[in-house]
């Protein structure tokens, strides 16, 4: 049985619903492997602190239990359930840190001030670390101590993965991504077929596997499988610029479910594919697609995974568009519409590329109607951090999506635009669930559709 | 040696030793951990400015969070500012600090400080009530939160009793007041009171990291 077939049989994909994931499992396996329980706890804690440096330790020491982070978190705001308080999501890890690693750990152990963490607690916390945290980092913005809680939850996921305590679907898509090169079945063969079909259908050149190119583009599986127009739009823009560009089948998948699930080795594998492919074609720029976490994974973590500065620039597609619209190399027709923009958390709040999409919209001449809380303080769509893949998290996700719907509706804008395909599918799913009249559109496609001939 | 001599002598000395050594131990314990080099291409190199900006910025509430946080934050502001004014504005405290460090500055009128002391005590009580009744705070709170509240509130309470000459001889009240402050010194390095120092490192770390990415904090 081939690896691909085994993945499909084990975890069949659901590509008929508005959001892509694996099919809802009949029996859930939220505990992987057969490690004894005490070993799971030890492993979780070891991997949690493995990358612990001074910064994370300062964070762990600084919490004053003021509870303000709850007020910034869409899960707490929508449910009023205190367990969704962001810093509480780290409680077992805080406990273990104080008992085992902190500067006064000897007191805590000698006087038994913090009891050892149990596997039961970790299993209970799985929902808090995965289902109810999109790693959006809004809590980081309110914390009076400036604790970057989202980063700590990401580190807690490292521990949870190694302990085999990952939600069924997230583990399955991460494993699929590692084995097949894509979490959603966009294998090199599927991708190649799609490119050929799109190039034919849209009469657009899409160069593949060039040995030398100035620009290498990457794509998100969600785009390849659900929004393939993104590929066409990217090609139209790059061809318009007369750029020497390519797609490489040895490195195209921008999503990084290794990172989202907490497997650092898989995260590295996934990032290195892109890095090696860009190096192989001597790219000067690697463009990341409309995908939020892909930006964090490569723009801010890629070089650290590589171990030295990357020999090429890494840009989100919105930054690339903004740069080329501002310098006049790309020209667009005016769009006579009122538009509101949804900031993808990982690109904007956590990635710093908040202005770029606004510059793009400005060049398009639209009437930009900002949501009440916007930019770095934007509310997450609820689908980030891998949450959108988890079926049991759906009800909760719909609850937090209501904040987003209200934000968008309050602007009364004619059109909603974003620059993340994962946000888009979360909006699609929310739209279908609530029979809402708004659709999230792609910023890239808006530009591509309005290029001056 | 009477109680006041004990409070002013060996108790003060030892509590200060514990304070200084404890703070140094806890700070060194975390700050000397390794810091990984960040190889990503920075959007901005003004990371020190970002750190300082965030240390300053997080002192002030944000409008986006105001509606949901106004009560807790107001209580917090009142007792933090009140404590600072009482500790550094009351003339006898300034003299005490002058004895220890040689530094001094003009004080506030005593009656004003008494009033601030009462308001501070009231805010501390409200903070405790909130901690015991708000579902999030109840869940988060542990021994450290309540004990830190006690060691913070005792000096305010005993100070007010001492100046009002209520409950015992003035010398005894003063001794109890000084001992309560020493209890705070002793507890300071071990619990959350340490945030009075850690806040700068924690905010500064995030400020520097986000500035590098060009993200706002």
Describe it.
The complex is a heterodimer of chains A (about 450) and B (about 220). Chain A has 23 helices and ten strands. Chain A is of the alpha/beta class and about 450 residues long. Chain A has three domains: about 35-160, Orthogonal Bundle (Fumarate Reductase Iron-sulfur Protein, Chain B, domain 2), CATH 1.10.1060; about 180-325, no CATH class; about 330-450, Rossmann fold (3-Layer(aba) Sandwich), CATH 3.40.50. In chain A, strand 7, helix 20 and strand 8 (about 365-370) form a beta-alpha-beta unit. In chain A, helix 2 (about 35-50) crosses helix 10, helix 14 (about 230-240) packs across helix 23 (about 445-450) and helix 19 (about 315-325) packs across helix 20. Chain B has helices at about 5-10, 10-30, 45-55, 65-90, 90-100, 110-135, 135-140, 145-165, 170-185, 195-215. Chain B is built from ten helices and no strands. Chain B has a single domain (about 5-15, about 50-55, about 65-215), classed as Up-down Bundle (Fumarate Reductase Cytochrome B subunit). Chain B is mainly alpha-helical and about 220 residues long. The chains are: A alpha/beta (about 450), B mainly alpha (about 220). Chains A and B meet through helix 3, helix 4, helix 9 and helix 18 of A and helix 2, helix 4, helix 7, helix 8 and helix 10 of B.
Topology:
The complex is a heterodimer of chains A (453) and B (217).
Chain A: H1 3-10, E1 13-14, E2 21-22, H2 37-50, H3 54-62, H4 68-72, H5 74-79, H6 91-101, H7 105-110, H8 119-131, H9 138-142, H10 149-162, H11 168-180, H12 188-202, E3 215-217, H13 221-225, H14 229-241, E4 245-247, H15 257-261, H16 264-280, E5 285-288, H17 292-300, H18 302-306, E6 313-316, H19 317-326, E7 338-342, H20 355-363, E8 367-368, H21 394-411, E9 415-418, H22 421-434, E10 440-442, H23 443-449
Parallel strand pairs in A: 3-4, 3-5, 5-6, 7-8, 7-9, 9-10
Antiparallel strand pairs in A: 1-2
Chain B: H1 3-8, H2 10-31, H3 47-57, H4 63-89, H5 91-101, H6 110-133, H7 135-140, H8 143-164, H9 170-187, H10 195-213
């Amino acid at each position: 049985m081939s690896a691909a077939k085994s993945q499909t049989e084990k975890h069949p994909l659901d590509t008929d619903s508005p959001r892509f994931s694996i099919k809802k499992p009949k029996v859930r396996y939220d505990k992987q492997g057969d490690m004894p329980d005490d070993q799971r706890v030890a492993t979780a804690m070891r991997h949690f602190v493995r990358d612990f440096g001074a910064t994370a330790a300062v964070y762990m020491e600084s919490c004053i239990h003021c509870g303000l982070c709850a007020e910034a978190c869409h899960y707490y705001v929508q449910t009023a359930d205190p367990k969704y308080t962001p810093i509480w999501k780290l409680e077992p890890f805080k406990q273990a840190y104080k008992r085992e690693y902190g500067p006064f750990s000897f007191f805590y152990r000698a006087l038994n001030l913090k009891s050892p963490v149990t596997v039961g607690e970790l299993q209970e916390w799985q929902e808090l670390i995965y289902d109810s945290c999109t790693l959006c980092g809004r809590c980081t913005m309110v914390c009076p101590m400036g604790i970057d809680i989202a980063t700590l939850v990401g580190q807690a996921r490292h521990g949870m993965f190694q302990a085999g305590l990952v939600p069924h679907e997230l583990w399955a898509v991460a494993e699929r991504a590692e084995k097949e090169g894509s979490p959603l079945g966009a294998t090199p063969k599927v991708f190649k077929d799609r490119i050929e079909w799109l190039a034919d259908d849209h009469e657009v050149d899409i160069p593949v596997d060039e040995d030398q190119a100035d620009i290498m583009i990457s794509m998100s599986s969600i785009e390849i499988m659900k929004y393939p127009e993104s590929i066409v739009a990217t090609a139209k823009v790059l061809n318009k610029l007369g750029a020497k560009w390519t797609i490489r089948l040895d490195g195209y998948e921008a999503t990084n479910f290794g990172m989202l699930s907490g497997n650092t080795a898989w995260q590295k594998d996934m990032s290195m594919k892109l890095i090696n492919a860009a190096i192989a074609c001597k790219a000067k720029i690697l463009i990341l697609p409309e995908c939020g976490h892909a930006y964090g994974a490569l723009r801010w973590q890629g070089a650290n995974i590589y171990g030295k500065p990357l020999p090429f620039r890494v840009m989100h597609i919105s930054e690339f568009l903004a740069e080329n619209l501002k310098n006049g190399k790309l020209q667009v027709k005016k769009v006579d519409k009122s538009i509101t923009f949804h900031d993808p958390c990982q690109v904007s709040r956590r990635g710093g590329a908040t202005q770029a999409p606004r510059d793009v919209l400005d060049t398009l001449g639209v009437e930009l109607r900002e949501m009440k809380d916007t930019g770095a303080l934007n509310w997450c769509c609820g689908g980030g951090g891998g949450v959108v893949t988890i079926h049991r998290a759906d009800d909760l996700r719909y609850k937090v999506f209501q904040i987003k719907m209200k934000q968008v509706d309050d602007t009364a804008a004619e059109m909603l635009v974003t620059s993340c395909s994962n946000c888009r599918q979360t909006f699609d799913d929310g739209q279908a669930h609530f029979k809402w009249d708004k659709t999230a559109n792609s910023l890239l496609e808006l530009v591509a559709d309005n290029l001056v001939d | 040696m009477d109680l006041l001599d004990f409070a002013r002598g060996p108790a003060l000395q030892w509590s200060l030793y514990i304070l200084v050594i404890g703070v140094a131990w806890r700070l060194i314990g975390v700050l000397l951990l390794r810091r990984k080099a960040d190889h990503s291409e920075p959007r901005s190199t003004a990371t020190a400015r970002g750190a300082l900006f965030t240390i300053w910025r997080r002192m002030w509430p944000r409008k986006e969070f105001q509606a949901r946080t106004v009560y807790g934050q107001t209580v917090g502001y009142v007792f933090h500012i009140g404590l600072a004014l009482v500790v550094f504005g009351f003339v006898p405290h300034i003299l005490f600090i002058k004895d220890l460090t040689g530094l001094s500055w003009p004080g506030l009128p005593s009656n004003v400080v008494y009033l601030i002391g009462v308001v501070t005590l009231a805010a501390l009580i409200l903070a405790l009530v909130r901690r015991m009744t708000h579902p999030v705070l109840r869940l988060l709170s542990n021994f450290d939160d309540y004990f830190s509240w006690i060691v913070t509130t005792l000096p305010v309470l005993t100070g007010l009793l001492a100046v009002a000459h209520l409950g015992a001889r003035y010398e005894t009240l003063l001794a109890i007041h000084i001992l309560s402050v020493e209890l705070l010194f002793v507890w300071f390095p071990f619990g959350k009171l340490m945030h009075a120092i850690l806040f700068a490192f924690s905010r500064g770390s995030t400020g520097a990291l986000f500035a590098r990415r060009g993200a706002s904090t």
